[in-house]
């Protein structure tokens, strides 16, 4: 069978894409079955797309916003091996403003990420104790900054705001703000699978999950080659991309699981979650799923 796997179309997943390419899972932009390898087909999208596709059952496994797992934890299982995380600055999640952080009263929010939005709201409510009005970011950064005190950008837009700054604007890195507040790393995205798919396709799912981890390891072990391959595909120069890939973490160690647990606790306290979720993993026994609605 072929396992349908989501793929984030941001620079942060380029090391994975490079590993997939070098390990032979990609051919002419598509996937193909090979002897001894699982069948995989990739579906690219932004994080909020993948959140919705996994909830709908349009994909079987994929990187989703870590807050999306928390909101659907009774129906999903986590990969124990792969995440998108950082310990401190992440570079690609930026709050852009002309004001000091403590004077921000309104923020235009990206529609591309659920975790970053929940993280920002949690920081403002619990750490800074500020009342903030939120709206949607849609259009040009300069226009949004005329209407709002700040704009939250992620992914390649966040990197562009950092490396090609708006005149007079200041960027606050959410990974840095989180580390200063809690002393913990932050997990922005997790790889998750639907529990109903895992219950009937356990062997195939585990095989694909392990192959993805190997591809990610390959990319991490060959970062200079990854940077060379990405040059020209993005606006960023060699130094910027080398720094970015060095900041990102793609494993999911006990320390990073602890950081994610703390994020869930604080997001619940801030009203961004209805409960603190249990983290359940693909390689643990699958229990029957309780009746629950999966929400993107």
Give the count of helical stretches.
12
- In total, the number of domains comes to 2
The end-to-end span amounts to 26 Å
Strand order of the largest sheet: 9-8-10-7-11
CATH domain fold name of the largest domain: D-Maltodextrin-Binding Protein, domain 2
Supply the key terms.
D-Maltodextrin-Binding Protein, domain 2, 42% helix, five-stranded mixed beta sheet, 2 domains, 296 residues, disordered C terminus, globular
What does this structure look like?
The chain is α/β, with parallel strands linked by helices and 296 residues long. The chain has 2 domains: 2-85 and 186-269, Periplasmic binding protein-like II (D-Maltodextrin-Binding Protein, domain 2, 3-Layer(aba) Sandwich), CATH 3.40.190.10; 93-182, Periplasmic binding protein-like II (D-Maltodextrin-Binding Protein, domain 2, 3-Layer(aba) Sandwich). It has 12 helices and 13 strands. It has helices at 14-22, 47-56, 66-71, 114-127, 141-147, 155-163, 174-182, 195-200, 202-221, 223-230, 238-247, 254-269; strands at residues 2-8, 26-27, 30-31, 39-45, 61-65, 76-86, 93-97, 106-109, 133-136, 150-154, 170-173, 186-194, 248-249. A 5-stranded mixed β-sheet has the order 9-8-10-7-11, with helices on both faces. A 4-stranded antiparallel β-sheet has the order 5-12-6-13.
